[in-house]
């Protein structure tokens, strides 16, 4: 039986490389490709492949949102996330949205090809990092007391200048604490940092 797949990645070179690699297999056929989450939903809904290889973070639209939308639509396609991101947050978000597997892009070629076959056959595929995340064995970097103090001020509507005054530090120091907090929480702005901190029970 031929396994029909769709490849989703916003980087053309990466997408072409994956397509070239899997197309050499006699039992795998690439029937579509997409460069964003919304485009992936359209292509997968149209082609109804057996498997979709889904990147996570794409400028044109998030992969997790696409996974969630395809799952909600009950599309009979199994979703294998293939990404560079291995944080607990990314892994849990993807699997929670309905992905059937999670692999990193540095996965060896034979392992990836077997993963496509396993996913198509209904067997879950998880990278070691994903197994650890789901088992709760991995710990994300903890925020320092100072970083939490800054986030609390921001969460209460304070500005960087206000946080600096409250904590009796420079505004540059506040920005440094915020940037460190962003990195540890896997976000890029203060609103997301506050939201994730609340979700994790840190505030």
From TrEMBL:
<feature type="domain" description="HTH luxR-type">
    <location>
        <begin position="136"/>
        <end position="201"/>
    </location>
</feature>
<dbReference type="InterPro" id="IPR000792">
    <property type="entry name" value="Tscrpt_reg_LuxR_C"/>
</dbReference>
<feature type="domain" description="Response regulatory">
    <location>
        <begin position="4"/>
        <end position="120"/>
    </location>
</feature>
<dbReference type="InterPro" id="IPR001789">
    <property type="entry name" value="Sig_transdc_resp-reg_receiver"/>
</dbReference>
<dbReference type="Pfam" id="PF00072">
    <property type="entry name" value="Response_reg"/>
</dbReference>
<feature type="modified residue" description="4-aspartylphosphate">
    <location>
        <position position="55"/>
    </location>
</feature>
<dbReference type="InterPro" id="IPR016032">
    <property type="entry name" value="Sig_transdc_resp-reg_C-effctor"/>
</dbReference>
<dbReference type="Pfam" id="PF00196">
    <property type="entry name" value="GerE"/>
</dbReference>
<dbReference type="GO" id="GO:0003677">
    <property type="term" value="F:DNA binding"/>
</dbReference>
<keyword id="KW-0804">Transcription</keyword>
<keyword id="KW-0805">Transcription regulation</keyword>
<keyword id="KW-0597">Phosphoprotein</keyword>
<keyword id="KW-0238">DNA-binding</keyword>
<dbReference type="InterPro" id="IPR039420">
    <property type="entry name" value="WalR-like"/>
</dbReference>
<dbReference type="InterPro" id="IPR058245">
    <property type="entry name" value="NreC/VraR/RcsB-like_REC"/>
</dbReference>
<protein>
    <submittedName>
        <fullName>DNA-binding response regulator</fullName>
    </submittedName>
</protein>
<dbReference type="InterPro" id="IPR011006">
    <property type="entry name" value="CheY-like_superfamily"/>
</dbReference>
